[in-house]
Amino acid sequence: MNVNELVPTLQLAIGPMILISGVGLILLAMTNRYGRVTDRARALRENPDLAARLPEGLAKQELAILAMRARSGRFAILFNSLSLLFAALLVCVLFTISFWALNWAWLIFLLFAACMVCFVAALGLFLHDVNLSLKTFRLSESAFGDL
Fold first, then answer.
1. Minimal CA–CA distance to 23: which of 90, 73, 79?
2. pTM for the model
């Protein structure tokens, strides 16, 4: 393989690399949200004064919603990470196929499809987390009145 044969492969690999960058930024946002959820749950569990300042039963309801958010966030991070893994494998496969002159377009298709399916699942779970956070907000709004 010479340089002239390698350049088209590099051009093909740019797309998945941009995808990796974008998905990585979304993963950063997801991990930040997940950290906030776990910090809030830990604060409610470990600080009885904080829970006592909330109206009757609100801390327990909030903890239940936080547990659902943590589960949703964990799966969103998992699927986003799998999406990144499939995109990285796609780059490796592109170079391997190019180097060995293999005709494995089906593998490229499968890796890209797996990457996109995982990414869509991660975004769906991320939106689920956002909706659950709004549910917590509505709970506190109803307990404290209009803020």
1. 79
2. 0.89
In this predicted structure, what is the pLDDT of residue 129?
96
Residue 114 identity: A
**Residue 36 in tokens:** 């906030």
34 phi/psi in degrees, rounded to 5 = -60, -40
- Scanning the structure block, which residue is given the tokens 């990585």? 24
Q: Which residues contact 9 (CB under 8 A, 6 or more apart)?
A: 94, 95, 98
Separation CA 61–CA 64 (nearest Å)? 5
Q: In this structure, what DSSP letter does residue 92 have?
A: H
Q: What percent of the chain has pLDDT over 90?
A: 69
The token duo for 61 is 């309801």
DSSP 55: P
The residue among 1 and 97 whose pLDDT is bigger is 97
Closest C-alpha to 90, from 75, 72, 70, 104: 104
pLDDT 10s digits, 123-145: 999 999 999 999 988 887 777 76
